[in-house]
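Hey, resending since the last one bounced:
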Amino acid sequence: MIQIAGNSYKKPVLSVQDQFDLYKKRGLIIDDSQSFFWFLKHVWYYSIGIYAKYFQNHTTDEFDPWTTSSQIIELYKFDKELRKLVFDYIQIIEHSLKTALIREIWEKVWGGAWSFRHTDPTQYACPLLEFDTTVISFFENIIKKYKNNNDTHYSNKILDYYFSKEYEQKIPPIWMMMQVMALGECIRLYHRLNGNNKILICNAYIIKWRP
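The structure tokens again:
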């Protein structure tokens, strides 16, 4: 048995029926018993509890008068649909930014003859002496993360294909880097670019770049 110093967590695991009864005890109006019991069974007590908190007294955990189980379920469903909608748009933004970083800088300006312009220190605002640690290390860490990931995702297979060819460049071409980079990593790359390159990206979205 694991011994933990300090106060121990001693609350028992509640069955679905116990969870159901606890909500009733705290004053929740169960206006659809079958539906609420199903949610407790399949969605999990604490997942629903996050939304129930909005209707409870923070000190006593008692529910506000006239709070119904349907209100909690509807709030849960609304949040679920909102998350799906937001995620869909995040994907659109991610793909758009990746395309802009490739086309607006390394394809339109420099042409497709050299796909490794992202390894050129002059493209970034950092001092030359810091280039290896701020830019090259940034790319190498992304590569390391995906090489160490053993799943079968398409992005990982792209890097596997590149390195299986044993090319002399340590960093893959820009289009391949973008394929395996997350949105947050693309944003960090944008922040490292020099002012002229940032202007090109902003122009693609018809917005004014502000230093």
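The radius of gyration is 26 Å.

Sorry for the duplicate.
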